[in-house]
Amino acid sequence: MNATNHQFRLAARPVGMPKRADWNYTEEPVREPADGELLVKVLYLSLDPAMRGWMNEGKSYIPPVGIGEVMRAGGAGRVVSSKHPGFVAGDYVIGHFGVQEYALSDGKDVAKVDPKVAPLPVYLGTLGMPGLTAYFGLLDIGKPNPGDTVVVSGAAGAVGTVVGQIAKLKGCRVVGIAGGADKCRYLVDELGFDAAIDYKSEDVKAALRTHCPKGVDVYFDNVGGDILDAVLTRLARGARIVICGAISQYNNTGPVKGPANYMSLLVNRASMTGMVVFDYAARYGEAAREMAGWMAAGKLKSREDIVEGLETFPDTLLKLFKGENTGKLVLKVAGE
Amino acid sequence: MNATNHQFRLAARPVGMPKRADWNYTEEPVREPADGELLVKVLYLSLDPAMRGWMNEGKSYIPPVGIGEVMRAGGAGRVVSSKHPGFVAGDYVIGHFGVQEYALSDGKDVAKVDPKVAPLPVYLGTLGMPGLTAYFGLLDIGKPNPGDTVVVSGAAGAVGTVVGQIAKLKGCRVVGIAGGADKCRYLVDELGFDAAIDYKSEDVKAALRTHCPKGVDVYFDNVGGDILDAVLTRLARGARIVICGAISQYNNTGPVKGPANYMSLLVNRASMTGMVVFDYAARYGEAAREMAGWMAAGKLKSREDIVEGLETFPDTLLKLFKGENTGKLVLKVAGE
């Protein structure tokens, strides 16, 4: 092995939207795996809104990425060489490989996947962390009943598309909130949502009145901010709000906008509960099998928005915060 | 019966703190009860933070008081005459009698009480709605486990004092947040709280770090605003926040301050749930009996802050919002 590894390392903690200067693009020779290690050639990287939080100082559900460290990211790749008993060269794997071309790993949290069951990028989206987040957040926290009205924001994203489709499978009325007519059409025409609200061109509160005549039983929130506040005005009695993310607030330079209408929780005896998918690790397999079954049966559709080239990483990441992706945003690092 | 009934009626919807001009003080002759009615001489009125919300226009968990209507209020009184099969003259009763000297009632939601078991004002506080709110909010929503750290705001109020004492009975570490050294001393010295934080003179965040070294498992929130935001920074994993009130926000003329730190719910897999005591009506008796037992055993102390004179109502109500009461604020309308 005589290859060079290129990497994006965190150079500075961003203020607001991450800038090119917040990254260092570095290179170093690829080292052979030591005993117990495997070397992975990264083929695809998962770009997720949560990455913005990992760039901030301070306590969260996971430690921040240190200055100078390779940026944390989930990825899919192929094992190039292995001195780990669980892997051999040629295995396809997913894991937290970081924003780089090659990753050495001790095998912890690395899982083998079968590209004949689904293309590799799907293991970063619908059958990966975003899909599992949707599955456990909706079913375990949102607890939808047949006939419930389920609203999801960031509806055209990697998590939102799965939330809405699972809610439909469970017999719910599903309303998605997304930015732009194309995304809204996709949700209704392709994914079978009952309605979609374009927050960029519609009055969200008025549209919720129209599309949720019996109120909102489950709200799966990926965005926070004004949209969370709008949905709070439409809760049904006993509603469950799943707090999965707050992408509208991640690049704030001022304080986070707290939900001013939170007293609707009292009026409606409703709850707002945070979730982190890592807590469900013991059940990933069960959930992934069920979702793969739905995909095979054509009941769960997956869409990936694939951008090529590791070097585009700083700009491609921003597509998430500009709302430019539909489905799972994936960075293609190398050909298989 | 040849008496005159004096009443406070809502004259205007207040903007900010209710002013004297928002009330009309009216009088009318007392009418004899018709068939199925009883006439109650009001002896004590319950003054509650929730009354501020009832004065606002708009949908809530209960309809607003109409302009020109007698202000809604819970009260305790004596039946003067009755053509209702369930009551006789001389019965002591509690019910929603309104801010007036005499109330006619059809008996709905009127309950007989025994002044030999507890003085009448206690039936408006610890053995009344505030006590029941504390009981169900803490036990059903907060679900404290022995050893948990329970924090309550508005801790020296009618609800807060009961929340803290029940949490102690359940084996929890209890920290109260209240305004002023006297209230804080009362909580620790008289009621047995483990610690109290004076939000008027202390840095609440720093004090929570000191007094809740293992984080906050249950937060019973009566105040909202900055204190809710401070507690959010100290949640333990899986914390439960009970949203019972938001007295700091009730007289805002601008927008409500939403909890900017609400994403702590995600980081800590925590929940925030609203509650309204009326939902537990079927279990009032069971809870009141248990609390009366604790009182008789000296394990639950009740304190009332009694102000005399119906005519003081507009000013006395404001004591709640100025934080001037310790324990249950009661307006004494007439002698027994």
Automatic annotation (TrEMBL), chains A, B:
Coiled coil: none annotated. Keywords: Oxidoreductase. Residues 16-331 form the Enoyl reductase (ER) domain. The keyword Plastid does not apply. Pfam families: ADH_N_2 (PF16884), ADH_zinc_N (PF00107). It comes from the Bacteria. InterPro entries: ADH-like_C, ADH_N_2, ER, GroES-like_sf, MDR_fam, NAD(P)-bd_dom_sf. This is NADP-dependent oxidoreductase. It comes from Archangium minus.
